[in-house]
Design brief:
297 residues; alpha/beta
């Protein structure tokens, strides 16, 4: 059973000039993450723009990732979909592709009750029989995973972790105190230090697409070395980037960060639009400062 520890990167999806998936550049993204020594790679996450891709594209990306990664790192596959049947389809494909785990979200727009949402997750679980990282992101899904939901899904031994992205410390405290069998993974970047203090041992962070070493440094300081004085210094150095990413153009910023790192990603897919020149210049300055200040921490 996969135990989630370390930095897990939701990989971006590069696109060619005609808007199609650029699989050669996608392989370059994956190789850069392996070289940077992150601890796992997620395909089909929000940062990968799964919501703007066809089912065929999503499955082709998973298959290509499995070929490129081999057994060098764990591969986690997102199953996010509004229809339970579609999520089950992606989960079954993940199993066929020998994924190491799946990411299970709430179905967006549908607004199920907590019991209905739990049934959604357990139906996916039954189809996949793989380790599950839940993904609680009410800002995108419209509902939150709460105590009733956790009581239901925690009955499955496959539910081993959760990417907690509500931004609500009450949910972090609930999970840490009442559901110790579900490993907490930080899913709210500017709260990473607090997550680690509450026992989280992993961080799903989009910024690790382009500054992976800095994210690994915070994980190692807090979790491996248990040196929270050092962790606070690293966190303080990274806060300007986190504040910028919270400014409303998250995916676009991650993709441009990759461009600055030599990873050509192409244009973001509609309905999103790329950063303007002023935003690009601002982000470039912030990233340079983060790298310098983390190195000095």
């Amino acid at each position: 059973m996969l135990t989630f520890e370390g930095i897990y990167t939701p990989a971006i999806t590069p696109y060619a000039a005609d808007g199609s998936v650029d699989f050669a550049r996608f392989a370059e993204v994956l190789e850069s993450l392996i070289e940077a020594r992150v601890h796992g790679i997620i395909i089909g996450g929000s940062t990968g723009e799964y919501y703007a891709q066809s089912a065929e594209e999503r499955m082709a990306l998973v298959e290509h990732a499995r070929k490129v990664i081999g057994n060098r790192l764990p591969l986690i596959v997102g199953t996010g979909a509004t229809r339970t049947e579609d999520a089950v389809h992606f989960a079954k494909h993940a199993r066929e592709t020998k994924a190491d785990a799946i990411l299970v979200t709430s179905p967006p727009y549908a607004l199920p009750t907590e019991l209905e949402n739990a049934h959604h997750a357990l139906t996916i679980d039954k189809a996949a029989q793989l380790p599950i990282m839940l993904y609680n992101y009410p800002g995108r899904m419209g509902i939150t995973m709460g105590e009733t939901y956790f009581n239901e899904v925690s009955q499955s031994p496959n539910v081993v972790a959760i990417k907690e992205s509500s931004g609500d410390f009450n949910n972090l405290h609930l999970l840490a105190c009442k559901f110790p069998n579900i490993a907490i993974s930080c899913g709210w970047d500017d709260q990473a230090l607090e997550f680690f203090a509450w026992g989280a041992r992993s961080w799903v962070c989009a910024g690790s697409n382009f500054i992976p070493r800095e994210h690994v440094a915070l994980y190692e300081a807090c979790v491996v070395e248990k040196n929270f004085d050092k962790g606070r210094k690293i966190m303080a150095a990274m806060m300007p980037l986190m504040n910028f990413l919270d400014g409303g153009k998250f995916v676009q910023s991650i993709r441009y960060g990759c461009e600055l790192n030599g990873l050509r990603s192409g244009q973001v897919r509609a309905p999103l639009l790329d950063l303007n020149e002023e935003e690009k210049a601002q982000l470039q300055t912030i990233i340079a400062d983060v790298k310098r200040n983390v190195a000095a921490a």
